[in-house]
Design brief:
Helices cover 83% and strands 0% of the residues. It has 7 helices and no strands. Helix 2 crosses helix 4. The chain is globular and about 45 Å long. 36% of the residues are buried. The model has no long low-confidence stretch (mean pLDDT 88). Keywords: Cell membrane, Hydrolase, Membrane, Protease, Transmembrane, Transmembrane helix. It holds the Pfam family PrsW-protease. It comes from Brevibacillus borstelensis AK1. Its EC number is 3.4.-.-.
Length: 224
């Protein structure tokens, strides 16, 4: 059991620590980050109930569409909703990179409990692939979500803020849908998912740097 717990928790904590430590402008209170992570953990339960209802009560004609809606749309919407109502208006969200920190935290909280349940059922032999694929993919969807939440927060114009808020939800859903589609549309998914994940990491790290650059300008322009 200890091996399962360690294998389930370690990837999420490691990835979250990486993104948290990249915040070299005004690091967020660790208590806020942990709270957001816990919100992500708790989010698993209502999402699982909703997904179960959809699976059993709705007459899906396409497995691909069912997977995209039940997983990509539902999971990313609820993560976004938690962020918007608990973090977005908070006083500690005071520079653009904070959006990435909090979005990654809620995403990894969700992915960590999901990973634990999966490893309990299937064993730790697949822990490496679970860390590389589902856990890190949730984190990277969170990077895109948080990047545009940060851009929205400091837009300065209401209409631009609304557009960026929409993008902060739509892009993670699209990326999550593409991720799911790879597994459902080809038997040779390994040859597609590995470059897809590497591309997500590359683009995600570019978003991190851009958020830092934007944050530096935001802090410099504040009245002293």
């Amino acid at each position: 059991m200890l091996a399962v717990i360690g294998a389930a928790i370690a990837p999420g904590i490691a990835i979250l620590s990486y993104f948290y430590l990249r915040d070299n402008l005004e690091p967020e209170p660790i208590s806020m980050v942990i709270r957001t992570f816990i919100f992500g953990v708790l989010l698993v339960f209502p999402v699982m109930v909703l997904q179960h209802i959809m699976q059993t009560e709705w007459n899906w004609r396409s497995e691909l569409f069912a997977s995209i809606f039940q997983s990509a749309v539902v999971e990313e919407f609820f993560k976004w909703m938690v962020l918007y109502f608990t973090v977005y208006k908070h006083v500690e969200f005071d520079e653009p990179y904070d959006g990435i920190v909090y979005a990654v935290a809620v995403s990894l909280g969700f992915a960590t409990l999901e990973n634990f349940i999966y490893l309990i059922i299937n064993g730790v032999d697949i822990a490496f692939w679970r860390a590389f694929l589902p856990v890190s993919s949730h984190a990277l969807f969170g990077v895109w979500m948080g990047y545009y939440l940060g851009k929205a927060k400091f837009s300065g114009k209401a209409n631009l803020e609304l557009r960026r808020l929409f993008v902060s939800l739509a892009l993670p859903i699209i990326l999550h849908a593409l991720y799911n589609s790879i597994f459902l549309t080809t038997e040779h998914w390994i040859w597609i998912i590995v470059p897809f994940m590497l591309l997500l990491w590359w683009q995600g790290l570019k978003k991190v740097q851009r958020a830092h650059d934007f944050g530096s300008k935001t802090l410099t322009s504040r009245p002293q």
